[in-house]
Design goal:
Farnesyl Diphosphate Synthase; 2 domains; two-stranded antiparallel ribbon; globular
């Protein structure tokens, strides 16, 4: 097998599994149709399926036939999309992956209720787990789900705060984004019968990589090549989003830099391009890109140190999971 064939084959099987569980004609035979069509819709919006793929590959590191846990892997994808459906309502986001968000295509009430069904379905998809592992899987899933909600609440709280400390922000992205990546890896290892110490290392690897991924997103939003990025560079600057870059700039800016930054943050009406250029210039002067890269790389390095310490049984899956993660780290969009 070639290096990429495991992931390619597993993604194909995962897509087939999700389509069978949530067919396009989901409303036929299931009523009311409005409850089920949004679920099929959001699951069909070209998601990368990174989280369930991590579960499948982590399983393959320890045991053959990761296809045997397609149901549990799909549970993670369904839960992830449930959170996105509800997040879009809270953020009043018009688009999801370039298409209308569910609450815009239908309405808020439909999106809330369909999301509720998705959460129930995620539990249903975990049920094929062996009885001796099911209790622990549900416990860890519940812990992760609660933490994701905690992260979302912290993120919303930050919108009304004048300042957010670096550690508060890092904890928020750990909860909102990273713990689900960690659980995805941990789940695959546990289902494969890996030692709990290895499953914990994989969890810690996922969490550290997840925090690094979000810092990478923060960085790309400001410093990406517009042609490669695929969306407007500087969106976080325009919205005054409290990313690591802004938090660090507010900490470091003194004198005229602080005055200029506060000026742009205080405006309710402004030229978007002018604001992006002005704040970008402040970031460059303060060396914010280098600070962010250093913090991001510290998480990546910690994560890979944990990954290299696991006791794998299948080196092909071990190396492929590592390569997929490295490719995500080096992305430019």
């Amino acid at each position: 097998m070639t290096e990429k064939s495991h992931a390619h084959a597993l993604l194909g099987k995962l897509e087939d599994y999700i389509r069978n569980e949530f067919p396009v004609d989901a409303g036929i035979g299931k009523s009311p149709r409005e409850l089920y069509e949004p679920i099929t819709y959001i699951l069909g919006l070209d998601g990368k399926r990174i989280r369930p793929l991590l579960s499948l590959l982590a399983y393959g590191i320890y045991k053959p036939n990761p296809e045997s846990i397609l149901s549990q892997a799909a549970a993670i994808e369904v839960f992830h999309n449930f959170t996105l459906m509800h997040d879009d309502i809270m953020d009043n986001a018009p688009l999801r992956r370039g298409k209308k968000a569910v609450h815009m295509k239908w309405n808020n009430n439909v999106a809330i209720l369909s999301g509720d069904v998705m959460l129930v379905k995620a539990y249903d998809l975990l049920l094929p787990t062996a009885s001796d592992k099911l209790g622990e899987v549900i416990r860890l899933f519940n812990k992760t789900a609660s933490e994701v909600c905690e992260g979302q609440q912290f993120d919303m709280n930050f919108e009304s705060l004048e300042s957010v400390h670096e550690e508060e922000y890092l904890n928020m992205i750990r909860l909102k984004t990273a713990v689900l990546l960690g659980f995805s890896l941990q789940l695959g290892a546990l289902l494969a019968g890996a030692e709990k110490s290895d499953a914990q290392k994989l969890y810690d690897f996922g969490v550290n990589i997840g925090v690094g991924f979000q810092l990478k997103d923060d960085l790309l939003d400001v410093f990406a090549d517009q042609e490669k990025f695929g969306k407007q560079v500087g969106g976080d600057i325009i919205s005054n989003k409290k990313t690591f870059l802004l938090i660090k700039a507010m900490e470091l800016a003194k004198g005229e830099d602080a005055e200029a930054l506060n000026y742009w943050l205080s405006l309710t009406e402004f030229d978007k391009e002018e604001k992006v250029k002005a704040v970008h210039k402040i970031y460059e002067k303060l060396g914010i890109k280098a600070f962010t890269e250093a913090k991001m790389n510290s998480y990546f390095e910690a994560g890979f140190a944990q990954y290299e310490a696991i006791h794998y049984k299948n080196k092909d899956y071990f190396h492929e999971l590592k390569k997929i993660t490295q490719d995500l780290i080096h992305r430019e969009k």
